[in-house]
Design goal:
- The structure holds 2 protein chains of 2 kinds.
- In chain A, strand 4 and strand 5 form a beta hairpin.
- Chain A has strands at about 5, 10-15, 20-25, 30-35, 45-50, 55, 65, 75-80, 85-95, 100-105, 105-110.
- By secondary structure, chain A is mostly beta strands.
- In chain B, a hairpin with a 2-residue loop joins strand 9 and strand 10 (about 100-105).
- Chain B is built from no helices and 11 strands.
- The chains are: A mainly beta, B mainly beta.
- The interface between A and B is medium-sized, with 25 and 27 residues.
């Protein structure tokens, strides 16, 4: 089945720890995105990548980092510099950067 | 950034029509979208409309766009309990060589049996 796979479904972070959220897609999409969702709020863009080996900061990039070494993969690292990381994280992809987004099933990150 | 506004809640009875409304501020939007999110899941694209269209119908879904008033609506006919979810309005705007997406806060639709 084609789609976007996010893992893990649930993740817990200890204070001072970096954690990495996985996002893999087999849709052959060029563009990939990371969004953060807080309760009662819309989605906010963290990072996006239009092609391999290129990525750009979104609106709330501070405390996060990404890499795009392969077309299929766009992992997100939540660093210890992100002081309020508890949220639902959504990965999305699009065939090109100007087309509709398709989303993964999300990762819920909580702080211990 | 651009603003996309939605009401937070809507409650309807099974079999009735639901109308979810959205307003946006960017007059240069290219596409407008409706996504559905069930609890603990990602967003599922329901339908979208190009900004030069007024209406789009897809089975039980009807999208109306009033570009002058920057108002978008989603009508769900014969609403079922399985339609209970959060519905997000989104618009995309061309920014240099990239389309940026702006999402509303979501409308929680509750369908009562």
């Amino acid at each position: 089945d084609g789609g976007i796979t996010q893992s893990p479904k649930y993740l817990f972070r200890k204070e001072g720890q970096n954690v990495t959220l996985s996002c893999e897609q087999n849709l052959n999409h060029d563009a990939m995105y990371w969004y953060r969702q807080d309760p009662g709020q819309g989605l906010r863009l963290i990072y996006y990548s239009q092609i391999v080996n290129d990525f750009q900061k979104g609106d709330i990039a501070e405390g996060y980092s990404v890499s795009r070494e392969k077309k299929e993969s766009f992992p997100l690292t939540v660093t210890s510099a992100q002081k309020n990381p508890t949220a639902f994280y959504l990965c999305a992809s699009a065939r090109r950067a100007n087309e509709k987004l398709f989303f993964g099933s999300g990762t819920q990150l909580s702080v211990l | 950034g651009e603003d996309v506004e939605q009401s937070l809640f809507l409650s309807v009875r099974e079999g009735d029509s639901s109308v979810i409304n959205c307003t946006y501020t960017d007059s240069s939007s290219t596409y407008l979208y409706w996504y559905k999110q069930e609890p603990g899941a990602g967003l599922q694209l329901l339908t979208y409309i190009f900004s030069n269209m007024d209406m789009k119908q897809d089975q039980r879904l009807t999208v109306l766009l009033n570009k002058k008033d920057k108002h978008l609506s989603l009508r769900i006919a014969d609403t079922q309990t399985g339609d209970s979810a959060i519905y997000f309005c989104a618009e995309s705007t061309r920014l240099y060589n990239f389309n940026k997406f702006y999402f509303g806060s979501g409308t929680k639709l509750n369908v009562k049996p």
